[in-house]
């Protein structure tokens, strides 16, 4: 059971000379998902990210510009800015204000139809394969920390449905409806998020090299909730292990080994990470190291149930407390709220 407690509440020793270009090309070639398509995938991992700072709330303003000063005086911390409205594709005035830190999670989806022999790149010639696994929320480079989850799933609720519930536009709520856990319009409390684990729904996915500046390309994974199963589709009979990790529980070692670098880095940003059970467990499992991780590995699977660690890049810096919104593709605004 996943523990929801709300706001009230390193890298390892092994180094590797892996050919990351070959590793990524193998994944791209085997997955055959260079163009976006819809696939069935099963939710197999829910990782507690702890109490995380949230980006400031932003809403299209209904306040006249000449009344903004009075609004700011009335509600200190509020501010206004002009930016592109993603829905209308026109510039608009937005009202913004800080949000309190709140518990967040990272969710992973497995696609058993696509089997990958990761181990061949790490000296493991057993031929054992694992399903393609994609983590929701994307990644973002944070100075002094390394790759982190760009858009965590915040366990945020409101009373729009008459009682505490995820917002109906949130990804967990949409999954709960699609998986027939609830009916549309019914409340889905954040404490029930663990019920989506093991559920099969449809996802829009893509694995490809994204073109960047200067002729460079970057290995990129894309995943977004698409829909529930249509008539004729069946639940995936998943034979693997379902993983849950929490800050205040005795976590299974195999599950901890499955956490990618960007997940562990995000955990370290949590206000309740220091002194938590999971910190002690990860410190015991991996050699303590506070340096950023190489984007090329990002916890790549070594075929032995563990994530790969790459050489240090720079001296550690204290992670910034302020949340900076990562740049997004126009069609990748996968905000859970």
What features would you describe in this structure?
By secondary structure, the protein is α+β, with helices and mostly antiparallel strands. Helix content is 15%, strand content 28%. The chain folds into 2 domains: 20-54 and 101-285, no CATH class; 58-97, no CATH class. The protein has 6 helices and 14 strands. Strands 1, 5, 6, 9, 12, 13 and 14 form a 7-stranded mixed sheet that branches. The chain has a 3-stranded antiparallel sheet with strand order 2-4-3, with no helix packed on it. It is globular. It starts with 19 loop residues before the first helix and ends in a 52-residue tail after the last helix.
Short description:
15% of the residues lie in helices and 28% in strands.
């Amino acid at each position: 059971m996943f523990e929801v407690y709300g706001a009230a509440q390193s890298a390892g020793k092994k180094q590797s000379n892996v050919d990351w270009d070959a590793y990524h090309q193998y994944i791209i070639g085997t997955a055959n998902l260079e163009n976006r398509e819809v696939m069935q995938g099963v939710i197999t991992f829910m990782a507690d990210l702890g109490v995380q700072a949230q980006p400031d709330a932003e809403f299209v303003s209904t306040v006249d510009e000449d009344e903004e000063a009075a609004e700011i005086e009335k509600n200190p911390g509020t501010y206004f800015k002009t930016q592109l409205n993603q829905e209308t594709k026109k510039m608009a005035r937005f009202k913004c204000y800080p949000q309190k830190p709140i518990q967040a999670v990272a969710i992973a989806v497995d696609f058993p139809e696509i089997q990958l022999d990761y181990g061949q790149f790490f000296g493991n010639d057993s031929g054992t394969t694992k399903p393609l696994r994609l983590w929701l929320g994307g990644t973002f480079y944070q100075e002094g920390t390394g790759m982190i989850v760009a858009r965590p799933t915040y366990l945020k609720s409101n009373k729009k449905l008459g009682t505490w519930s995820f917002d109906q536009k949130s990804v967990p709520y949409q999954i709960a409806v699609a998986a027939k856990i609830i009916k549309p319009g019914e409340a889905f409390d954040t404490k029930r998020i663990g019920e989506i684990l093991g559920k099969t729904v449809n996802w829009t996915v893509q694995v490809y090299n994204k073109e960047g500046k200067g002729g460079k390309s970057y290995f990129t994974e894309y995943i977004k909730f698409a829909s529930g199963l249509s008539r004729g589709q069946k639940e995936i009979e998943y034979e693997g292990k379902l993983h849950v990790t929490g800050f205040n529980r005795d976590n299974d070692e195999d599950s901890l080994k499955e956490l990618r670098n960007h997940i562990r880095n995000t955990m370290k940003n949590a206000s309740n990470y220091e002194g938590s059970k999971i910190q002690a467990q990860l410190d015991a499992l991996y050699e303590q190291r506070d340096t950023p991780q190489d984007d090329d590995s990002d916890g790549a699977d070594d075929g032995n149930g563990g994530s790969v660690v790459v050489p240090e890049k720079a001296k550690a810096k204290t992670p910034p407390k302020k949340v900076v919104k990562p740049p997004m593709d126009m069609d990748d605004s996968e905000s859970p709220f």
